[in-house]
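S.,

Sequence below, as promised.
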Amino acid sequence: MYTVVFIDTEVSAERNMVLDYGAAADGSTHIHTKSAKAFEDFLIEHSTGSKRFLCGHNIVHHDARYIRQQMQAAGITDVIDTLYLSPLLFPDKPYHALCKDDKLLTDSLNNPLNDAVKAMELFYDEVNAFHSLSALQKDIYAALLGQKEEFRGFFSYFYDLHALNVLKNELRGDISSLIKSFYDGKLCSNSDIAHIAARYPAELAYVLAMISAKDTTSMIPNWVNMQYPAVSNVIRLLRGTTCAEGCPYCRSQLNINSRLKQIFGHDAFREYDGENLQEKAVQAAVDNQSLLAIFPTGGGKSITFQLPALMAGELSKALTVVISPLQSLMKDQVDNLERNGIVDAVTINGLLSPIERADAIERVENGLASILYVAPESLRSKTIERLLMRRVIARFVIDEAHCFSAWGQDFRVDYLYIGDFIRELQEKKQLAERIPVSCFTATAKQKVISDIKEYFKEKLGLDLALYTSGAGRKNLRYEVLYKESDEEKYTTLRWLVEQKNCPTIVYVSRTKRTVELAQKLRDDGIAALAYNGKMDKAEKQANQDAFIRDEVQVMVATSAFGMGVDKPNIKLVVHYDISDSLENYVQEAGRAGRDQNLQAECYVLFHDGDLDKHFILLNQTKLSISEIQQVWKAIKDLTRNREVIQRTPLEIARQAGWDENVTEIETRVKTAVQALENAGYIRRGKNVPHIYATSILVKNMTEASLKIEASNKMSEKERLNAKRMMSMLISARSVAKAQEDDAESRVDYLSDRLGIERQETFKLIQILREENLLANTKDLTAYILKTDTQNKSLNVLKKYAAMEQFLAGQLSSEGQCINLKELNESAVGSGIKNATVNAFKTVLYYWTIKKYIKKSIENTTARTVIVPEMDAEALWAQRQRCIGLAGFIVKYLYEKYSFEKSGEQQLVGFSVLELKSEYQKSAADKQITDAEIEDALLYLSKIDAMKLEGGFLVLYSGMQITRLEMDNKIRYKADDYKSLNAYYRQKMQQIHIVGEFANMMVRNYHEALQFVNEYFQMDYKLFIAKYFKGNRKNEINRNITPEKYNKLFSQLSDVQREIIDNDTSKYIVVAAGPGSGKTKVLVHKLASLMLLEDVKHEQLLMVTFSRAAATEFRKRLYELIGNAAGYVEIKTFHSYCFDLIGRMGNLEDAKTVVRDASRMIANGDVEIGRITKTVLVIDEAQDMDENEYRLVSALIERNDDLRVIAVGDDDQNIYEFRGSSSRYFEEFLTRDNAKKYELLDNYRSSGNIVAFANQFVRQISHRMKSAPVTAINDGAAGAVELIQCASRNLEEPVAVWAAKVRDKGSVCILTNTNDETLRVVGLLKKKGIRAKLIQSNDGFDLYNMIELRFFIKKITKELATPVISQELWDAAKDSMASVYRNSSNLALCLAILEAFSLANERKYRSDLEMFLHESNIEDFIVGDKHDVVVSTMHKSKGREFDEVVMMLDHVSFDTDERKRLLYVGMTRAKKDLYLFYNNKAFDRFITGKVRAQVDSTLYGRPDEILIQLTHRDIHLGFFKDKKTLIQRTLCSTSLLTGADGLSVVQDGKTIQIVRFSKKFLRDIEENKRQGYVMESASVRFVVGWTDTADGQEYPVILPDVYFVSKS
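The prediction came back faster than expected:
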């Protein structure tokens, strides 16, 4: 008699004890206790037979360890474990109902009695299952497993020990033949089964059970694979290894030629000029080799890995994982397999809707999928890892394998994680054998091949066999046509398209150009469409389909088009813009002539300037070492108090201080993180996604606002943020967007846009859920098909419903073999007129994935074998329910959106909850589940009745980052950056190489072909040495064409070149003498930083002291590098600081804004992104004051790796009176890694002027320059004349002299004071000499000038966007010129606007206003050759004139500041310099080359003086009621003088328009005492003035007043 007691325990592993016991002897005898004694007594009472068994689920290695004492007391020696028996005895799907993986399915939690009863039920089912086996199967299992601990108890239940031993001995020699006999045709008859049985008996038994399964998708459970890792190896040995002898199984199942025909219908593999490359690679994969295959474009790469994958899925139940960087290409390949009736492939990527994603995951889990396509980034997903842990992996296939190599054309750091992922997966699965890999690429040079092979050898210990074709594409003819302009290119393109008249691809380099060029071709009558990566995916697919179906002749595309597109009749490929590498060019050109019997042509329309676009793009996308250092600093800051963090790329970017507008910001962060991981500083784990909501429960923002206002769970501030959050969420309901950088429903994005902390965002989301604004009811979007009068989606559904009903009626319970064409003809004959073969394929595909049928395709007979999984009646009943529900859905959505605009496709929004609720409302007895709704939606998607788009998600998906390097002083080093740097250098060289190919193709066709061949075949270094000799080797290491390099840098001096080339010094200090090309050096250095040193525009800051200087730098930079200059931040100190503190510039705050900004930076109160910089360039650095230096120091403190380039001339520091000092400039030299340069070549002044200035400047006590300035001017030596005057009044001789030298060129009179300039201007006017005064706008800014205010109002009135269009700009300018045509300031205003326009390609109104606020009038005053310019020495700085006349009235130079001011004046002269002075100060400088003369004439005072009135000179309140009158008064209007003011005559009336202030009335009296009376006046400026008392703005007049001598 046998007795079996069934038990389960609840164990505390920490305490190593049992907490709870459950046991059952039969259905009614049981115990549930916490007492070990009571449990023991129960065992003793019910263990009474000759054989006493204890049975449980996972008892052998779990429960039995804790109950040995009780087992011994009951005399129990045999243990039966139901866990290990279940996969053996229930190998078919559905598996036993009580089992879920290695667990029992129970009704309650932590109830050991319940589990004991379930184990009893399972055991007796296993006994019955064992009895149902054939005698031979029983003996095989008993012989293999009878002595194994996990199975011994079970077989002891059937056999005694002696019988088992006898059986094992009897079968020892025959076990192999018995297994081969029983499983004949299901495994290789030449496999070494005896060896496998001896070494892996349990693994062999499980594999034999799987082979016995009737369901072809049944799999060995994951827990078995984990416990017995050799299972996968046993499967391969029995079912996946071709024997040399060629047994029947191997000949039928592993013969790649017959399987190619059977699965794909192809008679033979593709060959390349007689080479059977495809067949060799397929055989290698079937033979379990790892391989690298170099397949030319159109070479049948997909079948090469799909065929072995489908064979492995069928024979070994194994999954092949295909890693590809292109989501759209994955989907195309899956769709292509579906069209061939193959249901075994799925993709999991961001393009899927939630329902499609869930379906894909389920098909991988249940074994229906044998090919899984994922992107490299997906390997970071825990979901993907869990999926792959549950499946036997046949191999990993890596597409675009050149991405592994820094020497490839498309290196991607996320590829470098693939090896680590595979290794970790193997370790977690405890696999004894390595998972093989197949790598594919279309083009690869020798170094790339070497890198790929070395990578897998190092990471996984794999040796990749190489399969490559040496043959080129002989059916392609290449030609390069050199074209000077876009117009020439287009004319040639149109001619080619018209002449060839065949399917054509035109490749361009920019997405915008695809649309423009396609439209231009259509306008010229050529059928053309566009394709680019930024287009809507539905439009992309529609355009691609139209091209494939020959509905359009031309596809204008970026390189994104063509991958995976199977169109054999393309006979023309035109590169409108040349590719960025030979690899890419060969791939893109290779999309022509895929039919090898077809002759095709490939043209390049080339201009050397085309390469510049690629260089610019490379610079924009390159991740520099400094950017990685910034990310490393951000991670160090985030991990200051913990080693592990979870942050999204956007959050890390913000912490690093990156500008949010950086291109592909998240990809760049991930690349930086991968680089840091490769260097060993961090370890990146799996992504940590958390979904907070899948639906919005309110219909619109109004309803949301009402609910938020009614909530008592939020503060006022939280209510405001909640409304802003809901507004953002309502406007962005797309799950596809949730994967993008700018996804408005991502938590990090919400936090960023709302300006609140992440935890506060989480809190608000939770409150919004509690208040029923957000929920998890699965919001979705889809396109339905409709017209104004017809529900086309419903028509599609009706067609498929009729076809399904027809097909269900044809089913036989035993299965049948059908010909789809015959089936379709029968359907059409039965009345289903719109039935098609493809539609039947879709139905069979859907039925297969839903497990209604098993299907296989016999391509050899063009027939499909169908075996029903249920009877036809039950199948049709299920289908009717699904079709009925699908019909309700399309009707409901059609009616819901019937008011929307018509069109073939209508985007609709809905939720699963909404559909469920509406369906159940339609009839009380219609109960439905979420799963049924989702099934109906999936069905509608599969039959193309609707296209599921994304859903709505509020999610947070952070990267898990563990910091390994804890020393904060450790920095990311150049050595760490080596591989990335090599990649970028390669990219740069590839652009040069493809340019060389184009030029060579123009010269010699055959040499160019040889060039291409040797590029791919030769060692790369030897190739470079052969084709780029001497200086050309240097040229290809620059991110710029040789032509542009020469344009930028060939005219520089040696020292200037040294400054440009210095990319290592942290501090570059340039002491630049006058006329030494300082501006040129800085502009070229800016160009070099961007083009050659890889500094991103957002990481570059240049600060100046005047808006004019900033404008000039930007203008010159435009001339050098084009539009890229517009993105560089070139600002004045004040402008930058106003930006930092978030204020508009104004005169009052300008006094303290630099101080305030530097304090805010030091206190951490400034947004990090605004102050994160790599390079800081300072112009006129000698003019910094304490606050400006503090600002610079604060920026240096914030940016560890900030490079500073400071340029200035301490000899020209003339603003000490306002706090500037050259000691701040000189301070940089005391810092580490500082380098000083001296620019001493003067390109401005003649030799004599330079010699005189050198002699004079030596008097300054402390100078930075160590040598004198040298004149480079090749012209005349020039004159320096010292005219000593006896007279106190110098205006007359200076004016006369200036008039005398006007014919020599531009002339400037320099004075010491503003009053002196006004007296000189008055005198020149009296003499009839045109004078231009360099004046200032003290007391007002240009924004307030009436002419410019009129212009801005015109702009504002018509402005629809922040950007001012050129048309609007021109119209407003013309209007201003018309209204103010008689204004003396019109030319000035036009010059101001022109300066802004030149510096800003995109004109933002806010930028214009800031420009006007910051600019000074003196920056825009330029006299023509007939004017004598008059200026103070201070205002002349930065200017130059042919002839300079200095009026030095009793000027002394007893201080260094006075000496520097005079030095500035002297060095403005280019040709000749004249000093008029009336003391002995300059006598000592009279030398042989300095002419001297004495003027003993005593000159009188000027007869006329000019006074320019400011706000202090007029009574401002007087203007308040004169607004209309003043606005009609133009600048230059003559005014009548009066005792207390000025008047204007209008309509015959004299009206006072200006009243003098008390201060100016006193000035009038003082002038009278000196003999001057007021004679005339005119309007100089009309400006806006704001009264601080009432806050109102009023126009006021600032006049010019002339006084004349009474004598």
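Confidence is low (pLDDT under 50) at residues 734-743.

Coffee later?
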